[in-house]
Amino acid sequence: MADTDTFPELPLFDLQLEPEDLQAVADTLRSGWLTIGPRTAEFEAAFAEHLGARHAIAVSSCTAALHLSYLAAGVGPGDEVIVPSFTFAATAAAALYCGATPVFAEIVSRKQPNLDPDDVERRITPRTKAVCVVHYAGYAAAADRLKELCDARGIALIEDVAHAPSAELGGRKLGTWGLAGAFSFFSNKVLSVGEGGLVCTDSDEVAQLVRSRRSHAMTSGTWDRHSGRTDTYDVTGLGFNYRLDEPRSALLLSRLSRLEAEITRRRELTERYRSLLDEVQGIIVPFEDAQVPGSSCYVIPIMIEEDGRQAEVSSRLRERGIQTSIFYPSIHRFSAYRDRFPGVSLPITELASRTELTLPFYPHMTYDDQDRVAAALAEAVAR
Ligand SMILES: Cc1ncc(COP(=O)(O)O)c(C=O)c1O
After folding, report:
1. Eight-state DSSP code of residue 329
2. What is the pLDDT of residue 5?
3. What is the pLDDT of residue 221?
4. How far is it, in rounded angstroms, from Cα 138 to Cα 130?
5. Is the CB of 90 under 6 A from ligand 1?
6. pTM strictly above 0.85
7. With CB atoms 3.0 to 4.6 Å apart as the test, which of 50, 106, 205, 276 could cross-link to 374 if both were Cys?
8. What's the gap in Å between 383 CA and the centre of ligand 1?
């Protein structure tokens, strides 16, 4: 990041691409085929193998992946989808796209800011069609307990794995616990290419629906016609244009080969960061150290113990060139949701949203920069 007038010295995230990434994209641009095609298929096969999933279907975003996953779970008008509110708005919005109602459930605590299975259980009604669990910051939520809960009631479990590629719970990759997992390749994510997403599933029916609906529910694609497999098509349902394209697929393939190494680096840096942050008075560092090795270590969230100091601490850090963000404001408190779903009260989630700050973090962050953030945070919180 060169321009210090417009960028903070220590940004929240920083993307570093390698020469082979640029080469892969340039080769694709020269190939003359840009929309979905053989590179996308190659990336899908590689990502499915990486996850140990039967199918991986690339789409244009995680939001699209969530929408298609909910549709594949049969979510429709009148149904309810239980979601956390301590997540990005897309987790809930995708239920609204299906004509269903998002039902917001609590997180466990500020130390474990993932969906609370007990609260999910309390919110199940005869209209509950799906539960969507988010693995916040890359740390596994209780997918095992949620799966049991959902299986026993014939409810679909969907995983929003936007933060957690390559993360695990009990030796099983996140995204493979439920009916479908929705990944994000958005700009600031662990495996980022600007825009992109993916649905993974072991179900042939889900895969068939997602594959069809991502491209207008057409029985053949442009690549099939270009490569002479067919010259016509039927439209068999209501589909969307949720396709990924070839340059991004090539970039994903190139970056996927370094994913494990990057996550190993993220884990080492996270362990070091956490030991520095453990010394800072007046903050809670979410999750336990023992959860780090199974995590994708997407971001470094902290919670200021005392309520009402988020804006002040954030602005003190900004004065020192350190960018922070609130990850996340509660969805049910956004104006569109407050008006539509009045009376939702989730005290733990709301406190987390009022006290959380996310700190700069990326795989090539230096120890000096980590030391600088921890020292500045200690000063900012101490007043
Ligand atoms: C938890 C979560 N779900 C869904 C999304 C949406 O991802 P995308 O931007 O790929 O649609 C995001 C992106 O920020 C996210 O953090």
Report:
1. -
2. 54
3. 82
4. 21
5. yes
6. yes
7. 276
8. 34
